[in-house]
Amino acid sequence: MSGPRTVSTFNRRGFLGAAGVGAASLGTAGLAASGTAFAAPAPDPVITEVQDWNRTLGDGVQARPYGKPSAFEKDVVRRDVEWLTASRESSVNFTPLHALDGIITPSGLCFERHHGGVAEIDPAKHRLMINGLVDKPMVFTLDDLKRFPGRVNRAYFLECAANSGMEWRGAQLNGCQFTHGMVHNVWYSGIPLKTLLDEAGLRGNAKWLLAEGADASGMTRSIPLDKALRDCLVVWGMNGEMLRPEQGYPLRLVVPGWEGNMWIKWLRRIEVGDQPWHHREETSKYTDLLADGRSRRFTFIMDAKSVVTNPSPQAPLRQKGPNVLTGLAWSGRGAIRRVDVSLDGGRNWRTARIDGPVMSMSLTRFYVDFDWDGREMMIQSRAMDETGYVQPTKDELRKVRGTNSIYHNNGIQTWLVRSNGETENVEIG
Ligand SMILES: Nc1nc2c(c(=O)[nH]1)N[C@H]1C(S)=C(S)[C@@H](COP(=O)(O)O)O[C@H]1N2
Ligand SMILES: [Mo]
């Protein structure tokens, strides 16, 4: 489908006026009386003719020693936005959320964010060092790490703090891949970081860790010790196989629920200290500049957020009658408790049906099965997590945070579905 483009920000009054729809009539926008059936099939050559694949043998086994998606799925790919960054080595691409279902992101479609390109590391030459305020500084090979008892498997979302960052000043990018695609959710296999810290022996004054990557950017982030001991993992596995190079092969730090920047890839060193380091990625980057010139410091947790992935600009509505609306919700504070969906720009809400496992700090899938009568809709979703936190509107966020920010935009997204089914990124205010 189309790449990103800029659309204007809509003002609720202006928009409704232009569309010629009275506010009152939108109360049940898009909801026709139920009973609309699927159309009976017209005479269809696909059924009556013999197709090529019926006539000839297909490839044998081993034609694809490592399987790939069907060639017909060639458009389901990560995409970048060329004007966003100066180089592809320090850049980002986006997960095609509109083309996926369930909660697990296929490994090859996980968005990539790196600051010095993808390090291609020979695992035999990779080490993890633990130094600083420990009794015994240690160096581990990958094989050493795989011999530790207590290995775990966990699914967690990773969201870059800059996800939706281009939307602070209004609707920008036309597709949930671009507005919300800096998130992925995979199964990790590895060991609790606590296991390694226990092995090295923490000194009494230990309070912070510095995690460091082996890539050309030498990415470093300070992590409070209580978080490290609570649930951080050192992982080599991703969706049942080794990590992909893009995701930090052969070793990555997992920091559940916290901003993606802290999940150091190509992890090679953990230094234990008594205070944070205040390196680049936690001072000049990944802090939020407020309207009064002050900055929010250490905004680690990713607050509850959700997005409708279908329909969305890259996945417009094709048919009247029965349709399935679906989307994703997540929270860095725990499990998603409820997702509400509005079809009329936030006037009326209904509770979506959640399907699939609901796990703490993992993507959660929701559905609303509905009949569409061809009316324009303004679709929104609103997540609530187990702490009772409710996803705010973008205007509520701007009131507290101003518009200087890039990071931590978890405001409610609006998609305008036109009567021809075409769908656009808009904002109502
Ligand atoms: N070593 C290293 N780790 C890194 C980065 C990096 O550039 N180098 N980028 C960080 C950022 S900003 C994010 S959002 C996540 C992205 O993880 P992903 O590439 O698996 O999506 O990795 C983080 N870890
Ligand atoms: Mo990031």
UniProtKB/TrEMBL annotation:
Domain of life: Bacteria
CDD domains with a match to the protein in the record: bact_SoxC_Moco
Signal peptide: 1-39
Gene that specifies this protein: soxC
Cofactor names: Mo-molybdopterin
Record protein name field: Sulfite dehydrogenase
Annotated Moybdenum cofactor oxidoreductase dimerisation domain residues: 300-413
Classification lineage: Bacteria, Pseudomonadati, Pseudomonadota, Alphaproteobacteria, Hyphomicrobiales
EC number: 1.8.2.1
A molecular function (GO) term: molybdopterin cofactor binding
Record's keyword terms, sorted: Metal-binding, Molybdenum, Oxidoreductase, Signal
Biological process terms in GO annotation: sulfur compound metabolic process
Domain Oxidoreductase molybdopterin-binding: 115-277
Enzymatic class: oxidoreductase
Gene3D superfamilies membership: 2.60.40.650, Oxidoreductase, molybdopterin-binding domain
NCBIfam families: sulfite_DH_soxC
One Pfam entry name: Oxidored_molyb
